[in-house]
Amino acid sequence: MATKAADNIKGIRSSRRRRESLLHTILTHKIACVGLAIIIGMICMAVFAPFLAPHDPNDQDLYHVLEGPSAKHLLGTDDVGRDLLSRVIYGARISLFIGIFSTFLSALLGCTLGLISGYKGGIADMVIMRITDTFMCLPVMVMLLVIVAVMGPGVQNIIIAISILTWTTFARLMRGQVLYVRELPFVEAAHTAGASEIRIMLNDILPNAMAPIIVAVTITLGRHIMLESIATFLGLGVQPPTPTWGKALRVGYSYLEIVPLYSIAPGLMITLAVLGFNFFGDGLRDALDPRLRGEGSTL
Amino acid sequence: MKFYIAKRLLYALLILFLVSILIFIIARLLPGDPIQAAAMMNMDLADEEIMNDLRAQFGLDRPAHRQYFYWVRDFFIGKWGVSFSSGEPVFGMFLRRIPVTMELFAGYVFWSFLIGFPLGVISALKRNTLLDASITSAAITGISVPVIWEAIVLIYLFAVYFQIFPPSGYVPFSENPVENILCMVMPTFVLGTHTAGMYMRYVRSSLLEVMGQDYIRTARAKGLGEMAVIMRHAAKPAMIPVVTVIGIDFAYVISGTFLVEYMFALPGFGRMGIDAIAARDYPVIQATLLVVALFILMVNLVVDLLYGYLDPRVRLA
Description:
heterodimer
């Protein structure tokens, strides 16, 4: 028993050391570095949009509509003469905002339910897991459109809609982790020491179950940005005049033959955002847990 | 094995029951009831008395649990209601559109296996080389590129700029096989690249895991060539986990089908669903969701059974 405990302490120490070298691992992981660079670029774009954008994104100039790239408008203008580059830069704001908030809500809901399900077991586990399975046999993209149709479009509604459809991933992941962690000796030790259940769940189990959750959060961020832009593309997401990539993609698509950049540029931004989070998540996964390679998907 | 099949079947039925309740509730949450929506289309109906008569006629004045019961019963006997926007029976619309979607599925399977599997194997064999890193990055890129954008870029390149393929539309195979293939190349490719990336990564990690097993070392020790080791000893066990994830990912494929059909104007099942959502065509939305859920459950059931057949440990657990 004593040696087991000692082993365990050693395990925790080495895991701490591993965490310190996490940054190192990520920085030597080329794909992760590319991802990190893209993410930082996106965040800078969103934060410093007023300084980076050459024009006001809502300034219309009806004498210069649907123009190709020029010195004044680097990416050209849209159907009401607004500067495309500025709108693409400002578009990062709403996309990141929705991505971050919906991921946060989704992870919070999913992790809470997964934690309860895995720790409590029994009826709670059965009920939560059946609900999870039920949600999982309806495709998120399709359900998102239906739910936004029910709730009406808008930023707030789309965040809620995305969150209530995607928490299942986190719930399953968290449950699996908890089932493993709760059998570890230090949880037993906490029980023996008389710690309350809530305390054990939050202090002992949660921190030790987080690694795959962090990876999932990263990948989910990209995925949610994509979901938002698809919903907006189909006219069910963020409403005009907010500059969004999804809307620009939609309107630009109808002018594809005249000004291809109108739809290709905002689409490239969505792709880059998703790619950045996926690349970074991939590196993070390798750094945190090499066993988990090869999972995760976006659409 | 019999016990395992029965267990999986019962479980699928339970989930189907829960999903149908969920869909029923969501359909009831849609703003306005179906009769009101129909009244908006046709002003002759916009009278309180006529609307109440209609509600009684369609059973909408019954308590919710009985409505649910009738809805499920009607679904299984093929009475899926009538579309509000076109006035056609939904079941007929569905039957007419399903071949297009099936063709799309066949094409996606073709592309994703053609691209995904060889790349996955190469990547695993050349692990940690530049080639592996390039293939892995390409796979993540394939997974990340949004379907709608990939569709737009391909349409611009191959339909507007080079004019090799038609930008959108559908020609049935029976009418003109060549044009049918031409108009399906881009849609199936878009759907295929996304899943090819996923399969490539599954194949890679699964093969790597198998290649580390003792029996592979034994096979090598017998003096077998690398090719024989992979084809005869590693390939089959490496496929087992890949089969399961194909089932899990099927929900993603369905979402992709909806979007691809929308982008390329293919008159399939997904296009019908998206149009119905835009038009608030309740009977079509409800039927679409239930069919999708049924489809995903069936694929997962088949995968589960296949898994149990391939790996004896699963069915005994």
